[in-house]
Design goal:
The complex is a heterodimer of chains A (402) and B (439). Chain A has 402 residues and is mostly helical. Chain A folds into 2 domains: 170 residues, no CATH class; 137 residues, no CATH class. In chain A, 63% of the residues lie in helices and 0% in strands. The relative contact order of chain A is 0.10. Chain B is α/β, with parallel strands linked by helices and 439 residues long. Chain B has a domain of 74 residues. Helices cover 30% and strands 21% of the residues of chain B. Chain B is built from 14 helices and 17 strands. In chain B, β15 and β16 form a beta hairpin. In chain B, α5 packs across α8. Classes of the chains: A mainly alpha (402), B alpha/beta (439). The interface between A and B is large, with 51 and 71 residues.
């Protein structure tokens, strides 16, 4: 009998033939990169306050610990439970969605009712990467958020802004960020009332550095940085804040890991952080602050977390490298605008969501100007982008001048 | 002004599995099937069923603006017109010729041109009458290249062969190095150039050794080593690497002619022996073949005969791909009656792979990998909206269908397929609109 041949489209060798370069493997790497950050969040928000009530750990590096705060065993584990719940809520909600709309109310295009079992739903959820929005949402919410609020967030992230938009690969907004925006709008009072000893840090200091930063009467090192230790505290992450966004060093390590594993390209984080650093450096020179000012802008308020895990979310960002650069520069500019002149303390999430809206336009524009050789028309288009960026930066600097 | 240098990706070469078993000659098949098309243009057959044909006799004519004849590869009898699988991925009509093993050749065979009094016109005429086309894969008629009115500065001989598995060009250089050097002389005469560069991948040590040894006494021929990446053998890439200049449509704009190694060898044979294009080197390789090797064979042989001569399939039971051409750009056919046509460089048999296909998540790896600096996802989007103006502005025509965007895709999206569909549609749209404009 002759060998049987089938038709297929070229190319017949794929980099995805090796298991390291498939989409599911990339998502696994993303979760692996989050694990140290989760563990650190637990260490900072749960374990250290718990140990601190028995022995005094107070050092210069972690000045927020206060041995008068009592932390129970459950409260010690709460940060871990919180993050875990984020992932589980997402998986559960999406599994329910698949169960209801793919199997329980089947139509002629989906798997017949008799064919489904737990394994098929497991596969659907697995290859829809349900866990990631929930995990990221739990990492950027304040740790004293009640669980039912987190559940609402996961519902918005996974069902409304992901599955109803068509599932994996078709969402318009970053699901975790849009859910974060909705929660901060709708439940901010609930979150701030629900303080207490769970978030030991915020009792001590009263406000996260970014909140503090916003309400400063005078911008000096003593006012902005000193209440939280020094810049090393910001770099290592022993400051108040959400679970994911405080430890800059771990986020940078995760960034390096993700770049080496080719999950993300370094373009967006580098241009984003670079823009923020550049603008705040100019403001530093204009207003005569010390070098701590741009460093604080970069290390503070989840900027690095947003740059590495949020702004690089592939579905909602431009595809082409130059489009990614343009996108990242504008996210940086809008982050600075929201931080300096906005009414809410954080600017990262809002800026990313805002520029995500334009990523389709940026993509088409940058695809037109991206080619092997250039002409004066393309040069003019690049020039146009540069002029817009320059004008925006000038505006920011002029308004930020004291 | 070049702002982006052409780049590529390093692929696993896998040339050695076919190089290890050497080269085999297979010149007396029982039947040959001469394709009556090159996949795009149909040829007109000039012999009838039942006619006796001689080896080298004209059996068909291409009759568009690149008119040239097609020759019979063996002497024998035309016994029918049969549909066979062709490298274009379709079934095409072929002239079935039965071998009479008499090896009767046409009377013009063996007439050498006067090598001392060669003129440009003679060589072009000879290349045309011998039906020589580019053997690298594009199949562009070679005499058209040589007919450019201006004098050219440089001849680049393309021996890069960047596709994985293929090794027929390397083997050709080693086997026919003397013919290659003489062919270069004739081509230089034809295009009026003074210098020649042979481009070879730098990891092909055995080829470089032969070239270094043989080219010592020829000052006008240089060796250019290109990096080990795909697509290093792309014409635009080689020209840019060698001359540091870029061109719009054809390399002759900047005084460069690019020819494949095997084309040059056929030109040499045409000039010296008046031998038409009826034989070529072809790689039979892949993981599904027992002993992969190269064949020097007639055009029109079925792939089945070559595969039997290279040990047959490894596993008859498994489903596989029969690929006409290289694994990056080739087309699959449904059975092993694939006909060796003049531009077919390899027959690759691979096992079927079933990876998980997922929706595009927009990671942008395809546009990072694209050697022509396109954004394939945007082209696909514009193609699905049938937005031809946008397709034009996205430089869709610059696509060379190298397959790298599909290669790097972690979700196994067949993005190359969509881009090539978009390119075809845009071509049709532009030609229709141009005709409207003429009226």
């Amino acid at each position: 009998m002759a060998k049987k041949f089938v038709l297929e489209k070229a190319p017949f060798i794929r980099s995805a033939d090796e298991q390291t370069l498939t989409t599911s493997q990339m998502m696994k790497y993303l979760v692996i990169a989050l694990i140290p950050i989760i563990v650190f969040g637990w260490l900072k928000n749960g374990l250290l306050p718990y140990i601190n009530q028995f022995m005094n750990l107070n050092t210069d590096l972690i000045p927020y610990l206060d041995s008068s705060i009592k932390v129970s065993l459950l409260e010690m584990l709460y940060p871990l439970i919180f993050v875990l719940c984020g992932g589980l809520f997402s998986i559960g909600l999406e599994g329910l969605y698949f169960f209801l709309f793919r199997y329980y109310f089947p139509n002629k295009y989906t798997t017949p009712k008799k064919d489904w079992n737990l394994k098929t739903i497991y596969n659907e959820v697995k290859y829809s990467y349900a866990v990631i929005p929930g995990l990221l949402l739990a990492l950027i919410l304040p740790v004293n958020t009640p669980l039912y609020v987190l559940f609402f967030g996961c519902f918005f992230a996974n069902i409304v802004f992901k599955m109803l938009y068509g599932g994996f690969g078709r969402n318009v907004f970053n699901p975790a960020l849009i859910a974060y925006a909705i929660i901060t709008l709708a439940f901010w009072g609930v979150i701030s009332e629900n303080g207490g000893s769970l978030n030991a840090l915020e009792v001590v200091t009263g406000a996260t550095p970014l909140n503090n930063f916003k309400n400063l009467s005078e911008m000096t090192y003593e006012n902005a940085v000193a209440p939280y230790g020094n810049l090393w505290s910001f770099f290592l992450g022993f400051i108040p804040g959400a679970i994911g966004e405080t430890s800059s060093i771990l986020i940078i390590l995760a960034f390096v890991y993700l770049v080496i594993k080719k999950v993300i390209t370094p373009i967006i984080p580098v241009f984003y952080v670079g823009t923020v650093f550049l603008i705040s450096t100019i403001i530093m020179f204009v207003n005569g602050y010390g070098i701590w000012y741009p460093l604080l802008q970069v290390l503070n308020g989840g900027l690095l977390f947003g740059a590495v895990f949020m702004a690089t979310e592939p579905v909602t960002t431009p595809r082409s490298p130059n489009g990614k650069a343009i996108y990242a520069i504008f996210v940086g500019i809008f982050t600075m605008i929201f931080r300096l002149f906005g009414s809410l303390p954080g600017g990262v999430g809002t800026a990313i969501l805002l520029v995500c809206l334009f990523s389709g336009i940026i993509d088409r524009f940058s695809a037109k100007i991206r080619m092997h050789r250039t002409n004066y028309k393309n040069a003019l288009r690049y020039l146009l982008v540069l002029i817009v960026v320059g004008l925006l930066i000038t505006y920011i600097v002029l308004r930020a001048k004291v | 002004m070049i702002i982006h240098k052409i780049k590529g990706l390093h692929l696993k070469g896998k040339r050695n599995i076919s190089l290890a078993n050497g080269v085999q000659e297979y010149l007396n098949p029982k039947y040959v099937y001469i394709p009556l098309t090159n996949g795009v243009v149909a040829y007109r057959s000039v012999v009838a069923v039942g006619d006796e044909v001689l080896k080298g006799q004209v059996v068909a004519l291409r009759e568009d603006r690149y008119a040239h004849p097609i020759h019979s590869a063996i002497s024998g009898k035309v016994i029918g017109i049969k549909k066979m699988w062709h490298e274009s991925g379709k079934m095409v009509e072929t002239l079935e010729i039965e071998n009479d093993y008499q090896e009767k050749v046409v009377s013009t065979w063996g007439q050498s041109l006067d090598l001392n009094l060669l003129t440009k016109e003679d060589i072009v005429e000879r290349v045309k009458s011998c039906g020589i086309v580019g053997l690298g894969g594009a199949g562009f008629p070679t005499f058209v290249k040589y007919m450019v009115p201006r004098k050219q500065k440089l001849l680049i001989v393309n021996g890069v062969e960047c596709e994985p598995y293929l090794s027929c060009d390397s083997i050709s250089i080693r086997r026919h190095i003397d013919k290659l050097i003489r062919g270069i002389k004739y081509v230089l005469k034809a295009i009026g150039a003074k210098k020649c560069v042979i481009a070879v991948k730098k990891d092909k040590k055995e080829v470089l050794e032969v070239l270094n040894k043989e080219l010592k006494k020829y000052k006008q021929i240089d060796i250019f080593k290109v990096g080990n990446y795909y697509p290093a053998g792309w014409e635009r890439s080689i020209v840019e690497k060698v001359t540091k200049k870029h061109y719009m449509f054809l390399p002759s704009e900047i005084g460069v002619i690019v020819d494949n190694v095997q084309t040059i060898i056929s030109v040499c044979e045409a000039v010296e022996e008046n031998k038409p294009l009826i034989e070529r080197m072809i790689t039979v390789s892949g993981e599904g073949i027992s002993s992969p090797q190269n064949f020097y064979t007639k055009i029109g042989v079925r792939s089945r005969e070559l595969i039997v001569r290279s040990g047959g399939y490894l596993d008859e039971e498994k489903e596989g791909y029969m690929i006409a051409g290289g694994p990056m750009t080739g087309k699959t056919v449904l059975d092993d009656s694939l006909v060796v046509s003049s531009t077919l460089g390899g027959i690759i048999v691979l096992d079927r792979k079933e990876g998980l296909k997922q929706p595009c998540m927009g990671c942008g790896k395809c546009s990072l990998a694209c050697p022509a600096y396109l954004v394939p996802t945007e082209i696909r989007k514009a193609y699905e909206q049938k937005d031809f103006v946008a397709l034009g502005k996205l430089h869709t025509m610059d696509c060379v269908k190298c397959g790298l965007c599909s290669y790097v895709c972690p979700s196994r999206v067949d993005i190359t397929y969509y881009v090539s569909l978009a390119k075809n549609d845009l071509k049709n749209y532009q030609s229709v609109n141009n005709k409207k404009g003429d009226k």
